Amino acid sequence: MKQYLDHFFLKARKENYPARSIYKLKELDKKFRLFHRGMKVLDLGAAPGSWSLCAAEKVGAEGLVLACDLESTDTVFPSQVRFFVEDVFARSPEFEAVLASIAPFDMVISDMAPRTTGAKFTDQARSLELCLEALGLAEQYLMRGGGLVVKVFMGPDVQNLLRPMRERFATVKSFKPQSSRSESKETFFVGLGFQGAKPA
């Protein structure tokens, strides 16, 4: 299989990370200085757990990473990570209570991706929906000055995400890490300096 010849896949296996995606977040952090010790991070689409492990390393034992995904994971997390099996579109009262008890978060990160159908425009539309839901959670639970990172499959409707992000964050940048596969349509949007939810 192609993935077994992939440099970052092999690197992740050698360094005992559950997925190669950790290097995307490491690149994002290196470029945008996303994390610092003691931060509270909300990690969406967290399974199998590489982003949560990366964030946990950065925020340290005095920080907290609240992670969720539709799928469970066997990854063993450090004590500052709390993992929930949760649907972001249908959040349980228990999870909402946990969110409210921890908020505000310093950073919301989302590596969520739809189950791909092979139909390019369908996959892009579903990816956009996930990003907009992540933005909605950021509006609700992110502290002023905080940040948001979302993965999106690039398509013709991407302005429907960029426009509201630019209204809510002081700075919005796009970035495609070197560790993203060259054939992938994914790009990451980074919003920094959260200015609060846009009034209705």
Structure description:
By secondary structure, this protein is of the alpha/beta class. The chain has one domain (2-194): Rossmann fold (3-Layer(aba) Sandwich). The chain has helices at 7-14, 22-32, 50-59, 93-102, 120-141, 159-168; strands at residues 40-44, 64-69, 81-85, 105-110, 142-153, 169-175, 186-194. The chain has a seven-stranded mixed β-sheet with strand order 3-2-1-4-5-7-6, with helices on both faces. Helix 3 links the parallel strand 1 and strand 2 (64-69). The radius of gyration is 16 Å and the shape is globular. It starts with 6 loop residues before the first helix and ends in a 6-residue tail after the last strand. The model has no long low-confidence stretch (mean pLDDT 91).
**Inertia-based shape:** globular
Number of strands: 7
Under CATH, the topology can be stated as Rossmann fold
CATH class: Alpha Beta
Q: Order the strands across the largest sheet as they lie in space.
A: 3-2-1-4-5-7-6
CA(first)-CA(last) distance: 49 Å
Q: Mean pLDDT across all residues, rounded?
A: 91
Order of helices and strands: HHEHEEHEHEHEE
Instruction: Examine the secondary-structure arrangement and name the CATH architecture.
Output: 3-Layer(aba) Sandwich
Low-confidence stretches: none
**Total of helices:** 6
What structural class is derived from the secondary structure elements?
Answer: alpha/beta
Tell me the radius of gyration: 16 Å
Helix fraction, binned, reads 25-40%
**Fourth-level CATH superfamily:** Vaccinia Virus protein VP39
Largest sheet: 7 strands, mixed
**Roughly what fraction of the amino acids lie in strands?**
25-35%
Count of the separate structural domains? 1
